[in-house]
User: Fold these one by one.
Assistant:
Number 1:
Amino acid sequence: AQSVAQPEDQVNVAEGNPLTVKCTYSVSGNPYLFWYVQYPNRGLQFLLKYITGDNLVKGSYGFEAEFNKSQTSFHLKKPSALVSDSALYFCAVRDSSTPGYSSASKIIFGSGTRLSIRP
Amino acid sequence: NAGVTQTPKFRVLKTGQSMTLLCAQDMNHEYMYWYRQDPGMGLRLIHYSVGEGTTAKGEVPDGYNVSRLKKQNFLLGLESAAPSQTSVYFCASSYPGSQGKETQYFGPGTRLLVL
């Protein structure tokens, strides 16, 4: 069965410092991996995704994520944090081997990591 | 484009009451989803639809029903609300151009409190 884990409930970083939000996954086939961000009282917004190809994926707002197949990880990173990056971040995974329309139901979200950037 | 909209934004129900949550999207997406978000549990899929007139159960379908009579609308019904259904409900939609790879677009959420 597929699963995704975000081991940290909260990450605290000073503005200007690099940040990392961790995500590990488990699927039987090759993964499709996603990061979404949720600002207070808002729905989730897409940040970036890994489908295939280059292990380093660049996304919105200066975020990037590195796919590491051997460690089954897809950590979200940013070189220099901003106070406005404070939000709830969700990692999600789909198994690419799931055929047909059933793939629509097979995305699994992590429990979320709250990122807090202090000035 | 408005994207994905949800009605209402907030609702308080008494146990046993019924209600319908409306989701609408103007992006001509084939797929639509209903999730619930509970603290520490991420998003869990309630029901989903891969096209007009079709619906299917997700991870936590009990106590909910859905309908997709029009492509742009996806309704979530609670026939007899229970306190365990207190949650934030999110609707999402996606274009199935490359199944499994598509990005989901989320609505702003509906906060439901069942007393």
Number 2:
Amino acid sequence: DTAVSQTPKYLVTQMGNDKSIKCEQNLGHDTMYWYKQDSKKFLKIMFSYNNKELIINETVPNRFSPKSPDKAHLNLHINSLELGDSAVYFCASSHRGGEIEAFFGQGTRLTVV
Amino acid sequence: AQSVTQPDIHITVSEGASLELRCNYSYGATPYLFWYVQSPGQGLQLLLKYFSGDTLVQGIKGFEAEFKRSQSSFNLRKPSVHWSDAAEYFCAVGALDTDKLIFGTGTRLQVFP
């Protein structure tokens, strides 16, 4: 009965590869997010989607492409992976509006070698 | 622009001691404030939140936080720390007109027996 689940939990891949991270929420929320946590634990939003519509794109390189097939899913596809993409990526969901708390997944630790 | 500052990068306390983690925010209107905790290898769990009303809010695991508008602060407190409280703590601010959370840089809490 996990609320926000993302797979895989760990991902090790070589530079130049393309990879995807999947996220699903069963909370009935209408907004989903991707956050990136760097090696210094700093968390920054990358994208948000509301009812499958892109709301926020925080100047993320276009190698990163989120895809939302329905409002319960928000996948993150990354092309041509670079060393600097190594980080922990968190999916989250909430009802729309900044006053509503977000529920986070367990994170995907991406290591690019 | 919204911002969150957590002045303490790392705090060490003895088990049973009291705890206060500092958080200062910058936002032009009334902010929505959150504290999240991240245990090693885990996602973020909401401890408590402030939207309006009573400025002293109670959260899970015995934590509380006090909103002080005059000081632009939202410090997290716990009267007696347990070893299981060792984790990374993040303060975050949201707003009515946005779909994102702005996080502080986090405070790592270490608890000694």
Number 3:
Amino acid sequence: AQSVAQPEDQVNVAEGNPLTVKCTYSVSGNPYLFWYVQYPNRGLQFLLKYITGDNLVKGSYGFEAEFNKSQTSFHLKKPSALVSDSALYFCAVREKDDKIIFGKGTRLHILP
Amino acid sequence: SAVISQKPSRDICQRGTSLTIQCQVDSQVTMMFWYRQQPGQSLTLIATANQGSEATYESGFVIDKFPISRPNLTFSTLTVSNMSPEDSSIYLCTGGGDAYNEQFFGPGTRLTVL
């Protein structure tokens, strides 16, 4: 079965600094990888996906993620963090039967 | 992208009762999925619902507790039966079927069981 791991429960970053939220994956075959964000008391929002092609994927709100096959990673990044980026971030992988399996989530705190 | 809506958006229920959650997608989808998100936790897949067949349940979830209907390609219901406080969660549905598309989630149903 496919799986993703998010090694950090929480990440703290100062506003204006670059941020990285880590994700590693374990899949058989080509991975379909996703990042979702959940703001307090709101639904789950899609940020970006990697299916194939360029290893650097750009998504919503200035986020991007780098697919690294040799390190089996798909880290989420943003060059300059905003306080409004504070939220819960989920890495996810799609299985062959289209089920989405989520990581445990990483809470991102952007400090003013 | 697909738009997902759920009813009710939230409810407070008594122990031992049942609640049926409705999920509507604005386009036809082959499969619909039901997830549970317990407070402060990640999303856990409950079951996959295909039209015209019984839902497929993940380990730890059973049909008697979480019966699901899928009468057409845009609609599904999940019933949480004989509720206990441990069932207090956000329940989310989504649709899929195209291996190249992401799944979009609705705002979910926030259930509190007293």
